[in-house]
Design a protein that fits this description.
147 residues, mainly beta, Jelly Rolls, five-stranded antiparallel sheet, three-stranded antiparallel sheet
Length: 147
Amino acid sequence: MVGTKYGKYIITDPTRIQSGAEVNHSKKEGEYSRFLGFLNKDLMAEAPLYCNVVRISDPPTQPTLYKSVHVHEVEEVLLFLSIGPDCELGGEVVIHLGSEGEKHAFSRNTLVYIPKLMKHCPVYFNNFKKDNQFFIISFYFSLNVTN
């Protein structure tokens, strides 16, 4: 698509390029997630956001994906999306929000909006079915967020 007027807005296989270098994000034996793609200012200077996509497959062998409580200088949106038409994630996701660590659990397609500077995490995965897959898509609304 390079060389066309709008081809610069299409990035095929964005998992292979990160900060100007090729990266291998292949799932390793025993891992339950695979990084599938991202968008940041290194890939497209005009994009006003950072985005990454992770596929969760098989029952997670570890209780958490995002372990430590943290904040961001920008808003974040997390989308938990099932592959199947029933909108079921195949288990329970638990996320902690705010300085109190308020616990929220869900098992269906869910969007979580996290305001700027709000404490959040950890995220726990409980009772996941074997051979299950779903996606976590994160959006940060800033050009300055990096991996």
